[in-house]
Design brief:
The chain has about 170 residues and is mainly α. Helices cover about 65% and strands about 0% of the residues.
Length: about 170
Amino acid sequence: MLAKAKEEWEQEIVDKQAEKERYLSERITPLHTSGLSLSQLQDLCRELHEKVEIVDEERYDIEAKCNHNTREIKDLKIKVLDLRGKFKRPPLRRVRVSADAMLRALLGSKHKVSMDLRANLKSVKKEDTEKERPVEVGDWRKNVEAMSGMEGRKKMFDAAKSPTGQ
């Protein structure tokens, strides 16, 4: 597997080199200086110097923009770090919202049905719950002694079976 990766890497290097040579041959024409007079050679040098100056100016402009952007990025990173340190997030508070208000917030003006959840609940009176459990006031020791052992369990079992509770 490593041998295959090495071969692919070497092939990639060869391909890059061939691409570079092809690009340079398209962009740069070879200089023909043989048979030129002194004035023609001087004109050729001037043209080449002008081209070099243009390329240098472009390179300098791009480099200046790049440096400016890097400084701006650093400044913004510092500002972000400063803002993170100064402000604390406030603790969230529990907000009680009724079902109607929640549906209005979610659905907007479309919501016309009121959801009264308490209307569907059964009403239970306190008197009914008190009547179901008669409270016996007595000596708790007698009750514990009576319910201890198998006899007490049998009494509890029999009491659960009978509908009157006796």
